[in-house]
Amino acid sequence: MSRSRSHTGPSHSPAWAPPAAAEQIWNEFSKEESTDEATIQKSFIRHATKTLARSSYNMDQFAAYQATAHSVRDHLIDRWNATQHCHSVKDPKRVYYMSLEFLIGRTLDNALLNLNLKDHYKRAIGGIGFTIEDLVDEEVDAALGNGGLGRLAACFMDSLATLDYPAWGYGIRYEYGIFQQKLVDGYQTEYPDYWLTFGNPWEIQRLDVSYDVRFRGYVEKYVDVSGQTRYRWEGGEKVVAVANDYPIPGFQTKNCINIRLWSSKPKKEFDFASFNEGNYDKSVEEQKAAENITSVLYPNDNHMVGKVLRLKQQYFFVSATLQDIIRRFKKTSRPWSEFPQQVSIQLNDTHPTLSIVELQRILIDEEGLTWDEAWDIVTHTYSYTNHTVLPEALEKWAVPLISDLLPRHMMIIFELNLYFLQRVEKLFPGDRDRLRRMSVIEEGHPQYVRMAHLAAIGSHHVNGVAELHSELVKTTIFADFVEFFGKEKFVNVTNGVTPRRWLHQANPGLSTLISEKLGGTAWLKDLSQLDKIKAFADDVGFQNRFMDIKYKNKIRLAEYVKDVTGVTLSPDALFDVQCKRLHEYKRQHMNIFGVIHRYEKLKSMSKAELEKVVPRVVIFAGKAAPGYYTAKLIIKLITSVANVVNADPQTSEYLKLIFIPNYNVSVAEILIPASDLSQHISTAGTEASGTSNMKFVLNGGLILGTVDGANIEIGEEVGKDNIFFFGALTAEVEDIRHHQMYHNVAMDAKLQGVIKSIQSGRYGDSVIFEPLLGTLRSDYYLLSKDFTPYLEAMERVDAAFKNKSAWAKKCITAAASMGKFSSDRSIQDYAKRIWKITPVPTTEEFA
């Protein structure tokens, strides 16, 4: 496990130590900078002139943002160095959170708030002639994630830092995000999301931290000096993984941890011989092939080249991360048997599962351990978070693909599967069907590796992310594994969100009001204190202030919508939001069908009847996967209906429909605080948890949703009067599907009316939408069954919204009930029950 040692690489001479006379100077200089205005201004100007090479004559707002970011980063680096020094001296057990996504969003505002420097910088930067709010808006969202999985990982890193846990995040430094979404003639169109066009002032490139990563090659069998048969992986091609560090500060603590992101580089950047021969493309071929690995978040795998690249991406990430973890462990000179006492690795979904096989390979092939010794270490090191029970979403890789790209790993997978199935056979003799179900290898032509099975076998704990989801994990996809391993291996850790980002930063007005009532900001590190706000739920003065904050947030969103879409919204209307990835199971199509039903109903009303209607603004946001045709058709239907609804003078006062393109974290920070109602309407039993539902309620919005995912636990906390539930229950879903399949079940009459309206051509060429409407014939996601209950729930929402005081009480009570849903609580659950780690505060002696 040695680092890359190319002739251009770093020197590996012994660590430098300052001369005794310089020790004091070194220590003084490395102390955290002062936060007075003059010092901040000097820091800003130093970075503007020295780092950016700007002068007062060519400073614009973007350059001012960059100078500010570098100035703030200095504080982060000071704290990061102190934290790492503390952890090195105290040598605690660390957790390593492996995730192919970290949806961080913008950093400047979050860093200033966590460092408690925003007011200082506001005054200092104001004295130079800029406003901190304008500079915050100059930052581009870090395109390192895709959706809920990546945003959860970002929340967890914030909580790990805030709670002083010794932790590292590991991921990939994608040059391009998933894509930028634009609407062209109402269709989603994908454009490159090159978020690094102007660099990234927050990252620290570590050219001295680099590792070789091998692909392909061959496996050589040999006998070692003790007579044992061994294997080694040789040949093939190599690329270099280079570390890029992204500091993550805790809130009201000196602790600052790190996400280490890997970028891929070639072993040999330039083929000079080919260049001299005039073959210029070939001279840089290796460079392009290497850099492709980390170019794009989740490369499209609809074709073989995409599949190879995605598997390369996963192993590249796994190999570099393990080499880095092992290097850090070896510095302690501990025996391998103590590895699980020092290292806990959390797999965020199945994407990093090859890490299990890679550690086994390193231990037996490179460190000389026996198979059983190595496997005991592996299975006491890893834990795995499952994020779905949908069969089509469970990751599988073709055996021939793994065999070609990672030949030694495929051998190990076959071997560990054989040993595992032999143990299963002993416990359940003669049960061949059970062996087939539990095997890591799915038989067929070709065979496939079931990554979820591999993760479950190689981990000491498997957790779901909401109570219902964790129960479904145990009773569906892992039912056989529960029987084999026992229930104690399969646990629940309900997701959470960080209140620092999703209330303090996104909704400063509400954060200030809560702090005023609770006598300080301690609640931001102990969200259970929110419960005390319930005492003000009936207070008319508090209700008015609470709803006035909501109203101002709605004005802010209306201004954003006007800028982006040109549509004018009234903040007096009920703002009804559904923002999430486009997917049939999330049922955005039921929402748009409901909008069509509402529109048709409004068209039939008299003027007197219209005057009694609650005006509603329905807002959609989210991306569809580029190859997901049905999801993209849903977007087209939304935009087509919006064109008609928003232009209708008869109804536009009472109904507006908006699709906000290119949804990301920064848009969410505007959208979520402004919602009166949010929709979380997945078919029961399909949504693992959801976290946007938590963010909406935390910001004083109410949920209309199915009894699914974390909606259930939110309902338990806020009370049944403060959430609008509807629809089939999880236990009923399979029976309903079976009944629909074998009986001639009539479609819901109201849904039929919506379909006829679409087919009439009112919203454009109906032929376009036939494939979407065709999905209702089998109706796997139960739109027909749930449509009338959905509309009835909407009527309950309208009735409740008319009573302003009662609505305010519901919102206040719901928001005050969200203490459970802090990511701090989630992380404490992981730390105590799964990782077995304790906080290690960075004390003054290290600062």
Describe this protein's structure.
By secondary structure, the protein is an alpha/beta fold. The protein has 35 helices and 22 strands. The strands form five sheets. The chain has a nine-stranded mixed β-sheet. Strands 19-18-17-20-21-22 form a six-stranded parallel β-sheet, with helices on both faces. The two termini are 32 Å apart.
Primary descriptors:
transferase; 847 residues; Rossmann fold; nine-stranded mixed beta sheet; alpha/beta; six-stranded parallel beta sheet; Glyco_trans_35; 2 domains; 35 helices; disordered N terminus
Strand order of the largest sheet: 5-8-9-2-1-10-11-15-16
Radius of gyration of CA atoms, rounded to a whole number: 28 Å
**Low-confidence runs:** 1-13
Q: What is the overall shape?
A: globular
CATH superfamily membership of the largest domain, which one? Glycogen Phosphorylase B
Q: Average the pLDDT over all residues and give the rounded result.
A: 93
Count helical runs.
35
CATH topology of the largest domain: Rossmann fold
- Structural category: alpha/beta
Summarize the structure.
By secondary structure, the protein is an alpha/beta fold.
Q: What does the secondary structure layout of this molecule look like, with pairings?
A:
Elements: H1 20-29, H2 37-51, H3 61-90, E1 94-98, H4 108-114, H5 118-128, H6 132-138, H7 148-162, E2 167-172, E3 180-184, E4 187-191, E5 204-215, E6 218-223, E7 229-234, E8 237-249, E9 256-266, H8 272-276, H9 280-283, H10 285-291, H11 304-330, H12 339-342, E10 343-348, H13 354-366, H14 371-379, E11 382-385, E12 396-398, H15 399-405, H16 407-427, H17 432-438, E13 441-442, E14 448-450, H18 451-458, E15 461-464, H19 467-475, H20 479-485, E16 490-492, H21 499-505, H22 508-518, H23 540-565, E17 574-579, H24 588-603, H25 607-610, E18 616-621, H26 629-646, E19 655-660, H27 665-671, E20 677-680, H28 692-698, E21 702-706, H29 711-718, E22 724-726, H30 730-742, H31 749-759, H32 770-778, H33 783-802, H34 804-816, H35 823-835
Helix pairs in contact: 2-3, 2-5, 3-6, 4-21, 7-35, 11-13, 13-14, 13-16, 15-16, 23-34, 24-26, 24-31
